[in-house]
Write a structure and sequence with these properties.
- The protein has helices at about 55-65, 115-125, 140-150, 160-170, 190-200, 205, 210-220; strands spanning about 10, 25-30, 35-40, 45-50, 75-80, 90-100, 110, 130-135, 155-160, 175-185.
- By secondary structure, the protein is an alpha/beta fold.
- It has a 5-stranded mixed β-barrel with strand order 5-9-8-6-10, surrounded by 5 helices.
C-alpha cells in the first residue's frame, strides 16, 4: 500500500474480534507502539489494528489509523453486553449513537455514526440498531446494567471503545460506523457469559467487512456537504 493512499480503517479491541481479516494481510508496520496491519480486500486498501481495551487505547488507535491513511471511514467491530432483555447472546447491534457514560461534563458525551455506512452494513448483515454506551470499566453487574438501561430508550449495549473512536473520527471529518455482537445479556452471569461466547461471537462483525466493502464500492460516491 502506497503512503498517501486513502484507505478504510478497521478497529477492534481484542484479537478474537479481528476475525478472518488477517487472511487479507499484506504487511505490518508499527507506529507509536501500535501494530497497523495493511490489508487488501477485493482490491480495496484497508488499515486494521487491535487497539486494546478501553477508550484511551481506542482513541490512540483511531488517531493513528487516520494519520496513516484511513480517511475513507473508520469501522469499529467487536462484541458488547446487551442491556435490555430483547438483546440476547448472538444479537447483532449497529450503533446509531455512542455515549461516554463515565464522562462528567455533558458536552461532548455523544457522537452519531454515519447513516450511509450504517445503512450499507445493515444490508450486508442486518441487526438491531441502538445506543452504544461506552464505559471505562466492564459493565458486568446486573444492577449497573439495569441502571444504564433505564437511562436510554430502546436497544442499548455496553462496551468500552466506540464513543472514543467516534469522537476522534468526527473531529477529523472521517465517517464512522460500528457493529458488535452480544456476548452477554442482562443477567448476573455477564462475565462468565462473555468468556464463554467470545470465541463464537467475537469474529462475526469483522467477518462481514469484505461484503460491506463490496456493497460500498457499488454505491455512487457520497456528495460533498
Amino acid at each position: 500500500m502506497n503512503r498517501g493512499t486513502s484507505a478504510w480503517g478497521v478497529l477492534c479491541a481484542l484479537p478474537q474480534e479481528f476475525g478472518s481479516l488477517g487472511e487479507h494481510e499484506q504487511r505490518r508496520r508499527t507506529r507509536a507502539g501500535l501494530e497497523i496491519r495493511e490489508l487488501m480486500i477485493g482490491g480495496v486498501p484497508v488499515l486494521g489494528c487491535v487497539s486494546g481495551v478501553g477508550k484511551v487505547l481506542a482513541a490512540r488507535a483511531a488517531s493513528l489509523l487516520i494519520t496513516e491513511g484511513a480517511t475513507r471511514g473508520l469501522l469499529v467491530v467487536g462484541t458488547c453486553g446487551g442491556l435490555v432483555r430483547s438483546l440476547k447472546v448472538g444479537a447483532l447491534v449497529h450503533c446509531t449513537r455512542a455515549h461516554q457514560t463515565d464522562l462528567g461534563p455533558r458536552e461532548g458525551r455523544e457522537v452519531s455514526s454515519d447513516p450511509r455506512l450504517r445503512a450499507a452494513w445493515q444490508r450486508v448483515l442486518p441487526g438491531s440498531e441502538g445506543w452504544f454506551l461506552t464505559a471505562d470499566r466492564p459493565v458486568l453487574s446486573l444492577l449497573r446494567r439495569l441502571r444504564l438501561a433505564r437511562a436510554f430508550a430502546g436497544p442499548c449495549v455496553a462496551e468500552m471503545e466506540t464513543a472514543a473512536v467516534g469522537a476522534v473520527a468526527q473531529a477529523a471529518g472521517v465517517p464512522w460506523a460500528a457493529l458488535r455482537a452480544v456476548t452477554d445479556a442482562a443477567t448476573p452471569w455477564g462475565g462468565a457469559s462473555f468468556h464463554l461466547h467470545l470465541p463464537s461471537q467475537g469474529p462475526r462483525a469483522a467477518d462481514s467487512i469484505p461484503a460491506l466493502l463490496r456493497e460500498l464500492e457499488r454505491e455512487p460516491p457520497a456528495p460533498y456537504p
